[in-house]
């Protein structure tokens, strides 16, 4: 097939679609280690079974396109793409030149049609969200720009259905978009491209390659450049690394090759946080940690080192029937958390009425919590790693005290703790000193900003606090006060 025929064919198909119930494969990046947790969410909310690409931070699942908006609302997923084609065992040639020729052939034979239709559909939802008052439903077809200059409209019944879906599902979001000036600007720019009457402006694209494996004779840059060249030639799109409309993804892992088209412009992990701190946790990871402890109705859930509040904020939005308590000893962190909550309240209840969320923030020292013993169901926190926050030396003081105080406030026999730290050595040592009160259930290994960290899932043993040698403080009754100073002394005066 020559060029025009190929692209022409692409367009004819796209004109008739996207069918509302068309089946497509969605790929998503998730925090590494949380693939199964993400798969669980997909099963629960979309009734789709996800394939997990183990320890690589990716999952794949099949949906019908009417679920597209729901996919964007999942909380475990960082970046989304629609799969053009997956190869389980791609036979890479052994020289760069041969590989390059293969990329060219590949670009021309890939089944782009459905994936591009999904991308277009996704774009139309985005457009509508940004510009609700658009009156003319006719717009130039993205696909028309693809080398053939033809135009088309999205079938009107599908437009209406999306409109309905939106009315049902994105009430909250439509406001968000208009309150963010940069977004509006992006929308305008984007629409300009789409509204070009003649379709002379070709789509802008870029190829992003992710490569892992040591048996390749090319780098990810080589692959992106060569495959990019082939895509450009095939579609007659214009390469633009920054202001692209279409982002083509080329994921290579040993012999596995997945070609996709991005459905997210930026990672979803920054959702709902407006006041960032130096170590703000990704919302997607916070969500995964919360899922690990399976919050129940009326549970009291505490993040004693909440920082900017990423964990309790994610928690309170998904598990509204639990009560969240967050605290930090740093005043700046506490006010950031408060501001993040205020911002969400403003979005949810016009103007932020007083009774908003089952969440409270306190400034406290974790080693001396102003809480009754045996009163907490779940402790979930992201501990200072000792890199960007705190120091490794301080951790040797902090971690044992922390585990002990957590054991005191937690309900014996039932409470759980989900603790994230990169200082594994220190953590495990501290844990070994208090084995009578905490049992380690399992560990999820994650990557946090390039650091290898562990999420430790602990269960509180049935042993009552204060009855074992491990937790006895001298003198015991006013122990908390003592404990605090014991912790500080070496750090302050050594
Ligand atoms: C890794 S950060 C938490 C980041 C948080 N998850 C977020 O999303 O912003 C650790 C936090 O522990 C707090 N912290 C350190 N020592 C503490 C203590 N003794 N009591 C309470 N908070 C403490 C620090 O102020 C810091 O905000
Ligand atoms: C796809 O739609 C979502 C939800 O409306 C939007 O946030 C996102 O930016 C769109 N993706 C692209 C690549 O336009
Ligand atoms: C939180 O973020 C999600 C994803 O961006 C959004 O759909 C939701 O409306 C936000 N919630 C609030 C209360 O702002
Ligand atoms: C509180 O945290 C901020 C970073 O958010 C840091 O700059 C400041 O030094 C901390 N304050 C104290 C008292 O540790």
Automatic annotation (TrEMBL):
Pfam families: THUMP, UPF0020. This is THUMP domain-containing protein 3-like. Belongs to the methyltransferase superfamily. Residues 137-156 have a biased composition (Polar residues). Keywords: Cytoplasm, Methyltransferase, RNA-binding, Transferase, tRNA processing. InterPro entries: RlmKL-like_Mtase, RlmKL-like_Mtase_CS, SAM-dependent_MTases_sf, THUMP_dom. It comes from Sinocyclocheilus anshuiensis. GO terms for cellular component: cytoplasm; tRNA methyltransferase complex. Residues 155-263 form the THUMP domain.
């Amino acid at each position: 097939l020559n060029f025009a025929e190929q692209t022409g064919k692409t367009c004819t198909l796209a004109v008739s679609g996207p069918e509302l119930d068309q089946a497509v494969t969605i790929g998503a990046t998730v925090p590494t280690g949380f693939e199964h947790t993400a798969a669980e969410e997909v099963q629960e909310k979309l009734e789709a079974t996800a394939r997990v690409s183990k320890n690589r931070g990716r999952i794949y699942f099949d949906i019908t396109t009417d679920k597209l908006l729901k996919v964007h609302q999942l909380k475990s997923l960082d970046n989304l793409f629609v799969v053009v084609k997956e190869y389980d065992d791609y036979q890479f040639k052994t020289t760069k030149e041969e590989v390059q020729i293969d990329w060219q052939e590949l670009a021309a034979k890939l089944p782009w049609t459905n994936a591009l239709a999904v991308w277009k559909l996704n774009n139309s939802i985005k457009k509508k969200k940004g510009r609700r008052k658009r009156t003319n439903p006719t717009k130039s077809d993205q696909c028309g720009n693809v080398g053939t200059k033809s135009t088309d409209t999205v079938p009107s019944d599908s437009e209406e259905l999306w409109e309905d879906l939106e009315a049902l599902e994105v009430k909250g979001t439509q406001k968000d978009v208009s309150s963010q000036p940069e977004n509006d600007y992006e929308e305008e720019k984007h629409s300009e491209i789409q509204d070009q009457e003649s379709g002379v402006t070709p789509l802008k694209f870029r190829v992003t390659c992710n490569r892992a494996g040591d048996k390749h004779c090319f780098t990810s840059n080589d692959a992106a450049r060569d495959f990019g060249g082939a895509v450009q030639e095939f579609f007659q799109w214009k390469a633009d690394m920054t202001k692209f409309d279409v982002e083509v993804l080329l994921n290579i892992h040993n012999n596995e090759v997945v070609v996709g088209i991005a459905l997210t412009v930026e990672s979803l992990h920054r959702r709902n946080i407006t006041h960032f701190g130096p170590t703000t946790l990704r919302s997607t990871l916070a969500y995964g940690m919360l899922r690990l402890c399976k919050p129940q109705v009326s549970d009291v859930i505490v993040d004693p080192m909440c920082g900017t509040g990423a964990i309790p904020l994610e928690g309170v939005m998904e598990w509204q029937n639990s009560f969240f308590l967050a605290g930090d000893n740093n005043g700046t962190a506490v006010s950031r958390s408060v501001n993040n909550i205020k911002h969400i309240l403003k979005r949810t209840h016009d103007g932020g009425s007083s009774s908003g969320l089952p969440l409270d923030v306190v400034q406290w020292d974790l080693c001396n919590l102003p809480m009754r013993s045996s009163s907490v169901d779940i402790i979930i926190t992201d501990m200072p790693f000792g890199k960007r926050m705190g120091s490794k030396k301080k951790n040797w003081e902090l971690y044992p005290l922390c585990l002990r105080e957590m054991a005191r406030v937690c309900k014996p026999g039932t409470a759980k703790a989900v603790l994230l730290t990169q200082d594994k050595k220190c953590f495990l040592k501290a844990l070994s000193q208090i084995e009578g009160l905490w049992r380690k259930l399992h560990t999820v290994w994650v990557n946090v900003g390039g650091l290898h960290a562990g999420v430790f899932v602990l269960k509180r043993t049935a042993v009552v606090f204060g009855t074992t040698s491990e937790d006895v403080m001298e003198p015991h009754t006013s122990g908390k006060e003592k404990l605090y100073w014991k912790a500080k002394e070496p750090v302050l005066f050594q």
